[in-house]
Design goal:
- This protein has 230 residues and is an alpha/beta fold.
- It folds into two domains: 144 residues, Rossmann fold (3-Layer(aba) Sandwich); 64 residues, DNA polymerase, domain 1 (Orthogonal Bundle), CATH 1.10.150.
- It has ten helices and six strands; from the N terminus they run βαααααβαβαβαβαβα.
- A six-stranded parallel β-sheet has the order 3-2-1-4-5-6, sandwiched between helices.
- α1 packs across α4, α5 runs parallel beside α10 and α8 packs parallel to α9.
- The radius of gyration is 17 Å and the shape is globular.
Length: 230
């Protein structure tokens, strides 16, 4: 039996804090269609979903044509914001050190995100993270979370069984995806969904900082017993 372990990270709200950019881009997209302003708390709730699915939740009375139109306007707005001088969606404190430590401990590391491939590439460029992830699953090639396809494809790409995968994310969509895939669902408390929702969705542990995340992953998929939820 393979001893490989795969840690799959969500991006927005888990590795980088992109909330301001996402909300600004969605506001510009809504303005393009004279829809007014999207409620900020509702925008926060849809982060992590694939873009058309997210627009459908924000605009439940609209049809698919409008959902797709807003999604395209959002992508254009996000790209333009990203090109502004000095713009950067920062890594959360401790993220880079955690990736370094996991690599040193022999973990395989991947991404599973509702971002587009272009968005992921821009993030990798901005933070000099190219070559760090052995599998990258994006919204371009997969059903939206919480469908488990991203984790199944990541596991197959790495030759790892799903029960040897830890999915790390800040939203209930990440946690439900992990549960559906048979992976270990790991929540982080610094992102965009409340901790209680992560717990209710099935998070095995919930971490307050990246240092405790590294320890928690060892407890979940290592030889030591699973750490209790806090």
């Amino acid at each position: 039996m393979s001893s490989l372990r795969l840690a799959v990270f969500d991006v927005d709200g888990t590795l980088i804090d992109s909330l301001d950019t996402i909300q600004a881009a969605m506001s510009l997209a809504w303005n393009r269609f004279a829809l007014g302003s999207p409620p900020p708390e509702q925008v926060r709730r849809i982060i992590g979903l694939s873009l058309v699915d997210a627009c459908a939740r924000l605009l439940p009375e609209a049809d698919l044509t409008l959902h797709r139109g807003v999604a395209e306007a959002y992508k254009e707005a996000f790209h333009q914001i990203r090109l502004r001088p000095g713009h950067l969606d920062p890594l959360y404190p401790g993220a880079r050190a955690a990736l370094d430590r996991l690599e040193d401990e022999g973990w395989l590391i991947g991404l599973a995100t509702g971002k587009s491939r272009r968005g992921v590439e821009a993030m990798l460029d901005a933070h000099d993270l190219h070559g760090r992830f052995v599998t990258i699953q994006t919204a371009d090639d997969n059903p939206s979370k919480p469908d488990p396809t991203m984790i199944h494809r990541a596991a197959r790409a790495c030759g790892v069984e799903s029960h040897r995968v830890a999915m790390i994310g800040d939203t209930s969509y990440d946690i439900m995806m992990a549960v559906a895939a048979g992976a270990a669902p790991i929540g982080v408390a610094w992102g965009y969904h409340p901790v209680e929702e992560l717990r209710q969705a099935g998070a095995r542990i919930i971490c307050d900082e990246f240092e405790s995340l590294v320890r928690g992953l060892d407890s979940v998929l290592g030889d030591s017993p699973c750490a209790p939820q806090r």
